[in-house]
Amino acid sequence: MSTQSFKDRNLLAVIGDEDTITGMLLAGIGQIGDHGKKNFLVVDTKTQVSTIEASFEEFTERNDIAILLINQHIAEKIRPTVDKYSQAFPALLEIPSKDHPYDPAKDSILKRVQKLFGE
């Protein structure tokens, strides 16, 4: 990748529950671009897995996103897709939510790092 492609990555994207997205929007990460493309997806009990996967794919393919945050309990719903993801950018981080604490045993990125260090 050229340095030009890194320079254009200046957004965070979030796939999360309502509380997580609300907090992130209050922190100022919200962006609605051309044609109403948002950098966040609010997931609730009615959100279909296919919608979550489509947003994940869209966010990981965009050239303006540097980091993709996803609630870990939502990542569990699309675990095969998350586990397949291996690109450096956007960086993928699994985060806890108010009702679902972080479990390091489920974090695919952490598992890769542990394997790299022989743990």
Structure notes:
- This protein is of the alpha/beta class.
- It has helices spanning 3-7, 18-27, 49-61, 72-75, 79-84, 108-116, and strands at 11-16, 40-42, 65-71, 91-95.
- It has one domain (3-116): ATPase, V1 complex, subunit F (Rossmann fold, 3-Layer(aba) Sandwich).
- It is built from 6 helices and 4 strands.
- A 4-stranded parallel β-sheet has the order 2-1-3-4, sandwiched between helices.
- The model has no long low-confidence stretch (mean pLDDT 89).
Any descriptors?
Rossmann fold; alpha/beta; 4 strands; 119 residues; 6 helices
Give the topology, please.
Layout lengths: L2 H5 L3 E6 L1 H10 L12 E3 L6 H13 L3 E7 H4 L3 H6 L6 E5 L12 H9 L3
InterPro entries: ATPase_V1-cplx_f_g_su, ATPase_V1-cplx_fsu_euk, ATPase_V1_fsu_sf
Protein name: V-type proton ATPase subunit F
Subunit structure: V-ATPase is a heteromultimeric enzyme composed of a peripheral catalytic V1 complex (components A to H) attached to an integral membrane V0 proton pore complex (components: a, c, c', c'', d, e, f and VOA1).
